[in-house]
Amino acid sequence: MKIDNHTGLVLEGGGMRAIFTVGVLDCFMDNNLWFPYTIGVSAGASNGISYASHQRGRSRYSNIDLLKEYNYIGLRHFLRGRGYIDMKFLFYIYPEKYKPLDYETYFQSPERFVMVTSNCLTGKAEYYEEKKDPKRLVDICCASCSLPILCPVAYVDGIPMVDGGVCDAIPIQRAIDDGYPKNVIILTRNKGYRKKEKDFWLPSFIYRKYPAIREQLKLRYRRYNEVLNYIDELEAKGNALVIRPEKPMEVGRTESNQEKLTALYEEGYEIGKRFLSK
User: φ and ψ at 112, to 5 degrees?
Assistant: First the structure.
């Protein structure tokens, strides 16, 4: 498959597992590889936004160095109403205090960047591109990353949203529908991984106002496995190049172990180099 101006880049989420993606993207930036279209969901959106603003190292800092300095993952944040991952700090305090997003570069770039959220009212995925309003851009990114149950419901234009992965875990079909039939897909699970098919039980008080999103959570494992099967088909036909971790995955969704995160980042960078050498 040839990478050209009609090739898209698709970024899976996975919480802290997406530090693998950060390594790949830093390698891409070091080698001046830019895609005309990038779509990211959940952590794929928050890490992809630094790629879209051409800020090499920004996501590595927030996922590893900042985590060491300010442990924004843990029960104490959840009890304060900010989520198990402190979303307020991560999206509204850290960027201004430590590593501001380069809005000028982001807004002026001709490259498209799409973020996926899940609409709590409709139970459907929403796809956003924002190239004018900094506050709305951050709201969308925060909503895309708001892990169900672990994080508060987020809002975009006053509409309640949760993690985009609930309704579209790997948005490959959207990339194709947007006019990019061939794609590079960065996954955060090993080849052959599938979620166990089991009933997903939710206490009645969780998202009781949002029955549509409760239904999506119940179906999530099935939809995830289906899209992985589809990606395998695209890869076999030569319509997708898939980059994924090769070593056994030792990083969890809310991992805070610095050594594990650093090792996974370095693996992503090395696999990115190998990908470019081809």
Answer: -85, 140
Residues 6+ apart with CB under 8 A from 233: none
Question: Which of 201, 126, 125, 195 shows the shortest CA–CA distance to 167?
Answer: 125
Token output for 76: 């104490």
- Both tokens of 34, joined, read 């830019």
Determine the Cα–Cα distance for residues 229 and 225; give it in Å rounded to an integer.
Answer: 6
Report whether 220 contacts 200 (CB < 8 A): yes
pTM above 0.90, yes or no: yes
Give the integer Cα–Cα distance in Å for 269 and 264.
9
Q: Give the closest residue to 216 by CA, choosing from 117, 114, 120, 151.
A: 120
- Name the amino acid, one letter, at 239: N
Distance CA 220, CA 166 (A): 6
Q: Cα–Cα distance between 119 and 213 in angstroms, integer?
A: 8
In a structure prediction context, what are the per-residue pLDDT tens digits for the chain, which is 278 residues long? 678 889 999 999 999 999 999 999 999 999 999 999 999 999 999 999 999 999 999 999 999 998 888 888 888 887 777 778 888 888 999 888 888 999 999 999 999 999 999 999 999 999 999 999 999 999 999 999 999 988 999 999 999 999 999 999 999 999 999 999 999 999 999 999 999 877 667 788 889 999 999 999 988 889 999 999 999 999 999 999 999 999 999 999 889 899 999 999 999 999 999 999 98
3-class DSSP state of 18: helix
**Tally of CB atoms within 10 A around 36:** 15
Distance of alpha carbon 189 from alpha carbon 154, whole angstroms? 26
Are 178 and 129 contacting, i.e. CB atoms less than 8 angstroms apart? Answer: no
